[in-house]
Amino acid sequence: MKFSTIALATVATAGSGVLGLDKRIVDGSAVASSEASSYSFVTSIIVDGRNGASVCTGALISPTVVLTSAKCVADPVSSKALAANKVVVGQGKITDVLSSEKIDLAKAASAGYAFPQTINVHPGYNSIAYTDNIAVLTLSQPLANMTSTNVGVKLIKKPNTTANTAYTAIGWGLTSDEDESSYPKQLQQTSLAVGANSTCSDIWAPYGSLTNSLCLVPTKSSSNVCEGDGLLVHTAEDKSVGLAGVLNLVATEDDVPTGKCTDEGVADYFTTFGNYVGWLTQITPLKESDFVSTASFSYGSAVADDDEESESSTSSNSDDESDVEPNTGGANLSFSSSTLLTAASAAAAAAFSALF
């Protein structure tokens, strides 16, 4: 069985579908008010594109440093960072900011949203290869509506990679595959489990050999993350929440899928952080101890939607701390065929150029 990424498969169906696929947790559940304080680090990131706004999710790792995917804030063709005045960051409801699918700056300011001061996309990021899919937005000051001046999630440097290990994905964005206006009023969540080797080792080249990435699958067939919207979290024994990854891409079975993130056989790839700690300390004023968790994490199991294999399945970093080296630049290209990359680049460039 082969897998192809939803983003590339959409080229074969409809260019307009790319934007719609880029921003949702489908059929998730709202985060309860009793849990909301645990996720005070979550931000909405709204990007002003030529064909309308797109939405993704970020995580504050300090009051002024937001971690997200590079795909969220990079030009889809050049892979370079977008201009800061094309992006707003905040914690209010998305519907408080948008007007006719465009960012309303007056509404955004009133809702506590702000332009980032700088956007740093990892220098190894490649929008076609999905390598080093991580970016940092630096704010000039804490967000106006921030509930705590000490907000900031700690990163899980070595997430558990055993098949069927349970995680939670959280995010803003659309809640329906069909309705482009279905923005939620509350943060959404869905359950995922680490995928088995039978699912994750058979990904359509070159994505099956991605490094710094953890493969997960839905635990409920109708619910999943979609590209551009998803933070992978787990709660520690001390009840603190740790950030295990940020969504890199969603892959689905067959060469030309239907393009829905809830299709049978989907696999979600999250960028993990072990190899990026050094880079983060270089481009932010933070020390490793400021944003890397030292808490203990116990992991439960969830029945993955693919099967119930118990073998380990990941292309993430080794569980041995000595194997984790800071990744301070350069892409981790692991392509089995340069022809595939060239063809994908041409197709994706044509389809994605309409977004900005």
Number of alpha- plus pi-helical segments:
8
Order of helices and strands: EHHEEEEEHEEEHEEEEEHEEEEEHHH
What would the principal axes of the Cα set say about the shape? Answer: globular
Sheet with most strands: strand arrangement? 13-14-15-19-18-17
Cα(first) to Cα(last) distance is: 34 Å
> Portion of residues in helices?
10-25%
% residues in beta strands: 25-35%
Biggest pleated-sheet summary: 6 strands, antiparallel, barrel
Cα gyration radius (Å):
18 Å
Strand count:
19
Poorly predicted regions: 1-23, 307-356
| Overall residue-averaged pLDDT value | 74
Pairing-aware structural class of the strands and helices?
alpha+beta
Which helices and strands, and how do they pair?
Layout: E1 3-5, H1 6-9, H2 17-20, E2 25-26, E3 29-30, E4 42-49, E5 52-62, E6 65-68, H3 70-73, E7 87-90, E8 98-99, E9 102-103, H4 105-110, E10 118-121, E11 135-138, E12 154-155, E13 166-171, E14 188-194, H5 197-200, E15 213-218, E16 224-225, E17 231-235, E18 241-253, E19 267-271, H6 277-283, H7 288-291, H8 338-352
Parallel strand pairs: 12-18
Antiparallel strand pairs: 1-18, 2-16, 3-14, 4-5, 4-7, 5-6, 6-11, 8-9, 10-11, 13-14, 13-17, 14-15, 15-19, 17-18, 18-19
